[in-house]
Amino acid sequence: MKQFSILCVLLLVMVVLLSVFLGSTEAKKNKGNRKVKAGVCKYDRKGSESPCNTTTNAMTITLNLRKGDPASCAPSKTVSKSCNDKSQTKKKKVKGCKYERRGSDWTECDATTNERTKVMKLKAGSNPECPETRSKIKSCGNKQKGSRRPKK
């Protein structure tokens, strides 16, 4: 009788261990099969861009669906973006450009933009690919005399 009870306990322990093992392997199988949340549509970051429309100063970008339910998400989405975006208007930098700073003066302060401009000419002997002139723009500060911190 004692051997029978020990055998039953061992059998029960084996059944529990087997069920735990099978449950964990089933969870691992289903881990990769996650469903996308309902209503979440993800689109590619880069899409096909149209040329800049000069009248509206905007361009359209078509983005394609990357993640999401095709039944509830549109297969593509059109986004409008300004042509003045800094990433679109990056100028090619040319090395070896030197400009005359001393020969040019700042313009008077423009009341509408609150800015003043300095146009500098290219120095002789600079790289020929450089632009002939370079403009610097500063805001007009209302500096009062004595506004600097005193020196220690």
From TrEMBL:
<dbReference type="GO" id="GO:0008083">
    <property type="term" value="F:growth factor activity"/>
</dbReference>
<feature type="domain" description="Pleiotrophin/Midkine C-terminal">
    <location>
        <begin position="95"/>
        <end position="151"/>
    </location>
</feature>
<feature type="region of interest" description="Disordered">
    <location>
        <begin position="123"/>
        <end position="152"/>
    </location>
</feature>
<feature type="signal peptide">
    <location>
        <begin position="1"/>
        <end position="27"/>
    </location>
</feature>
<dbReference type="InterPro" id="IPR038130">
    <property type="entry name" value="PTN/MK_C_dom_sf"/>
</dbReference>
<protein>
    <recommendedName>
        <fullName>Pleiotrophin/Midkine C-terminal domain-containing protein</fullName>
    </recommendedName>
</protein>
<feature type="domain" description="Pleiotrophin/Midkine C-terminal">
    <location>
        <begin position="41"/>
        <end position="93"/>
    </location>
</feature>
<keyword id="KW-0732">Signal</keyword>
<dbReference type="InterPro" id="IPR000762">
    <property type="entry name" value="Midkine_heparin-bd_GF"/>
</dbReference>
<dbReference type="Pfam" id="PF01091">
    <property type="entry name" value="PTN_MK_C"/>
</dbReference>
<dbReference type="InterPro" id="IPR020090">
    <property type="entry name" value="PTN/MK_C_dom"/>
</dbReference>
